[in-house]
Amino acid sequence: MRCVAKTVLFFDVDNTLYDHEKAFENAMKDCFITLFRHRRHDVNRWFPLFKKNCDLYWEAYEKGSLTRSEYQHVRLEKSLIPLHLTATESLSRRFQQQYEQTLPQFISPFAGVHDFFERTHTDGQKIGIITNGSGVTQRRKLESLKVNRWIASELVIISGEVGTHKPDHRIFRIAAENIETTNASYIYIGDSWKLDIVPSIEVGWDAVYLNTRGERPATSHKPLAQCRSFPEVSA
What we know:
The protein is an alpha/beta fold. The chain has helices spanning 20-35, 43-63, 68-80, 89-102, 113-122, 135-145, 159-162, 169-177, 193-202, 230-234, and strands spanning 7-11, 126-131, 156-158, 185-190, 206-210, 225-227. A 6-stranded parallel β-sheet has the order 3-2-1-4-5-6, sandwiched between helices. The chain starts with 6 loop residues before the first strand and ends with a helix. 30% of the residues are buried.
């Protein structure tokens, strides 16, 4: 992907800079083994149940009928019932805290991320981040990915820190307001059509769709490019 002068590249984090699904599974399994040592042999039976409930209750969380803590509790609670285990709210909090502490050790960048960031930075292009999530968790991920040296600190925009989240257009405008360069153009690279591609195009940015899961675009929005892997983004 070739960029002209004064183009600022913003990236999503999860499933854009690393394989979040793989890291999520490994971290959650590690948490289960840690907190249910006497049932560690059930971990491979438990995780598909947990993932099913993550997906089942996600829409309720997105629509606001479940708070974040309620969502985290119900997905664990329901996944443990078939194993005849019980999840109290206290246990759910411990599980989530354990996950957030454990996740960074399972994170590694996609092939080509470091080389691309180094080349882009050397060429004088600015690099930023726009991501949903809590500030603590997302910043830990960036540290684990070892990309902070290429990213301008003022261009790390995290929903939990700015009070709005993708696909709200405001989070993209906040990012643009932090750019000192005048007459800059913007490219956003992300893996979610709904959260990344649609809103970035609607605020007037170019977008690159990192479609690693081979999903069909749900609208007629036209990204600058569609790639199946990070090396394609950096080509």
